[in-house]
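note to self — DONT lose this again. spent like an hour looking for the file last time. sequence + predicted structure for the chain T wanted, 421 res
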Amino acid sequence: MRLHLPSGAIADLDVGRARAAARTAKGRGIARDVEVLSAARVLRAERDGIPLDLPSLTLCDLHLLRVALARRGAIDEPEIVIPCHNCEATLRIAPSMGVELGPFVDDELDDPELDAPFPFDRDQPIPAVRVGRTRARTIRLAKRTVGEARALWSRDPALPLAVVPSIITAMGIVALGEERRASVMSRALARASDDAWDEICAIWEEANGHARLFATARCDACGANNAVAAPAVRELGTTGGSFSARRRGAGAGTWDGDAFEQMVRRHADVAYRAMKLRNIDLVVDEGVPMVDDGGEPLLGCYTPPHVDPDLGIERPPEVRLFARSFRAELLEDPAFDLDGEVRETIEHELEHHLSFLAGDDPMDDEEREAIVLEQRRQVGRRESTRRGFRAIGADLVGFVRLGWPLLLIGALAAWLAHCAR
């Protein structure tokens, strides 16, 4: 299996040899995977076939190789249990099994967002951490290779992470505010608040992970897609879902449902008058949000006039805003412009109503096209094309399998007509 690694190297991965090496591996967790990848002729450079130096690869490269081994069944990956971010139903998933490897196989790591490198040269903001007599509000990381991060992945994954100087060095924490000494930084971070430590872990995962190394767990209860980082076992612990879910926004505790509904009504009054619309129901829904075709929870939705299937009565058109979606956005990003997004959502849904009255809704077509393009972006251009051809082939085979009697009858009729002539 040939893979284009995030670092730019091209690796040939012998899955059969890896599977054999895994049967005799003695390590646990990441250490086991490193042992498997280090076995003879498992990992080789693409150009000359010589063994690839695993310790010199980045941690992001290691994550991809571990995902590939799990996808091909060479190593086992534990299932994790997470709550759905939309409805909180329980989900079980082995993350590596859902990662799209097409872009890594086809050398399509050119997306300006998904494949953007982490800015190691910049300070990252964090909640305040006391360092001696001062407070640090930034952290800076340096890129770490597999060899340099040995203290992280070689430890017992069942034990809590001890924040000691060797761990600080392995994580690549080179600055905590103005402090540069690993011994001082380790003592400060060992006493840091949970909010600060969670933020640092999230930043570290972004720096050493990859935006494509995610699986999507679709919730059977509400249909929402949940992004789960892969592989499941990480250097800092077992992943519990998306990186953003581990961040705690300051705006989370300031939610006021009554104030939100008043805001919605105020913006709706302005929008209805400006667009000269009336007799459109407005609902602020506190329940589980609906999701779009891509599994993303909606901020709002529009329903045209229809006959209620249960009551058999005519229902007027409706604009519905989902309070929990807005609250989730505020939870993830305290700088989220709640007032502006409410206004924009109402106006957007009213535009859908005007399109309904006109008999054509180009916005709906654009939204569906955007979902398809996003899926293609994740899957990869060539893999999307291959899947399209496979789907056409499957449809053709299905048609032949089910329609052969009709084909036979048609051929027989044509032959009889020919004989009659």
